[in-house]
Amino acid sequence: MEKAVRFHGHICPGLTIGVSVAKYVLEHGYEYSPNEELVAVVENDNCSVDALQSILGTTYGKGNLIHQDYGKNNYSFYDRRTEKSVRLSIRRNAFGDKKLTRDERVQFLLKSNPEKVFNIEEIDYNPPDLAQIEESVQCEICGELTMSSRLMVYNNSEICIPCYKKMRK
């Protein structure tokens, strides 16, 4: 928890959810990922993701943290070393019917068994591809360097996505 708080900046229920997920993953045969050995696919962009980055080593920069913007507290992990994979999703009634304060939610999560808070299932081992290192190409409108796979073609010009959006207005 301390490592996650240092990275994130404060304690909150979202961060605690991520700590609980990371703790479960580490306790079940997955390891910290110095490179791309462990891949996390997250379905939200909330505080929980910071805990995964700091505790598990799954980061956007290394390409082993994949964000799918579904707005759900769901987390899938793929271990390229062992070819194991697991998915955790927060239970609908994880906190019961009680109205808990922010601090009570944090304490509840810290003391709870992950199996009571999350639906946990082994999933098919089908990890995302390794991160690709691509050539940077200059946008023909703004001149900024852009990953070649992100360029759009507009009027026979290769342009970045922001310039493409401006041209389409």
Q: Please give the count of helices.
A: 6
In the CATH scheme, what's the topology name of the largest domain? 60s Ribosomal Protein L30, Chain: A
- CATH top level of the largest domain is Alpha Beta
Cα-atom Rg, whole angstroms?
Answer: 19 Å
Count of extended strands: 9
Main pleated sheet: 5 strands, mixed
Instruction: Output the helix-strand order.
Output: HHEHEEEHHEEEEEH
Number of domains: 2
Poorly predicted regions are none
Q: Approximately how much helix is present in the residues?
A: 25-40%
β-strand amount: 15-25%
Identify the overall geometry: elongated
Query: What do the pLDDT scores average to?
Result: 95
